[in-house]
C-alpha cells in the first residue's frame, strides 16, 4: 500500500515527490490501544492544547480510575468537580459527559466506527457536541488509519501547501480541497508529508 501511494503522489505532484525523498519512509502508525471511546475522549481533552499539556491532563483523568481509562459508565459517575480538578475546562467536561451518556445508552455507535465508511464516521463523530470536522478527521487518520483524508482546516497542512507551492498567503479551505483532489485516493499520505515538510531545514 505505502509503495503504491507514494508512487501515485510522486506522479501527481513532483514537488511533493521531492519532499517525500527528503523526509523518507511513511511512518504514520494508527493508535490501536484502548477503545474508540477512549481515543475520542483523548481528542476532546487535547483540543487547543499543546501535546504535553494534553498528556498531563489525560494522565490525571486516568488517575481518577487508578491509571485505567474510565468507561462511559465511569465518566457518568465521576463528579464534575473532579474532572475540573484534573484540568478539564467546564465546556470539555460537558462534552465528555455527553459523549459518555450517548455511548452508554447506545444512541451513538462510537464503538463501531471501524465498520463505517469515512463519511459515516464523520457524520457520527460531528453529531457529538465538541467534535468538529478537524477532530473527526484526526480520528479517521490516527485511530482508523484511513488512507484518503485531507484535513483542509489544519494549519500545519495549510502551511505545508503554502511552502510547497510558494504561495504568499495561506491557501483558503476551497483551494485546499481543490489541491487535495490531486492526491486522492491517498490524501492521508500527502497530509503526513506536508506536516513533515515543515520540519525540513530551509534551503
* Proportion of helical residues: 55-70%
- List low-pLDDT spans: none
Q: In whole angstroms, how far apart are the ends?
A: 31 Å
Count of spatially separate domains = 2
* Backbone shape: elongated
Strand content: under 5%
Can you count the beta strands? 0
Q: Determine the CATH superfamily of the largest domain.
A: Hypothetical protein, domain 2
Largest sheet: none
CATH architecture title of the largest domain: Orthogonal Bundle
Helical element count?
12
Order of helices and strands: HHHHHHHHHHHH
CATH class of the largest domain: Mainly Alpha
Structural class: mainly alpha
Average residue-wise pLDDT: 94
The CATH topology of the largest domain is Endonuclease III, domain 1
Give a structural overview.
The chain has 203 residues and is mostly helical. It folds into two domains: 2-28 and 149-197, Endonuclease Iii, domain 2; 36-142, Hypothetical protein, domain 2 (Endonuclease III, domain 1), CATH 1.10.340.30. The protein is 61% helix and 0% strand. The chain has twelve helices and no strands. Helix 2 (14-23) packs across helix 12, helix 3 (36-46) packs antiparallel against helix 7 and helix 8 crosses helix 9. It is elongated, with a radius of gyration of 19 Å.
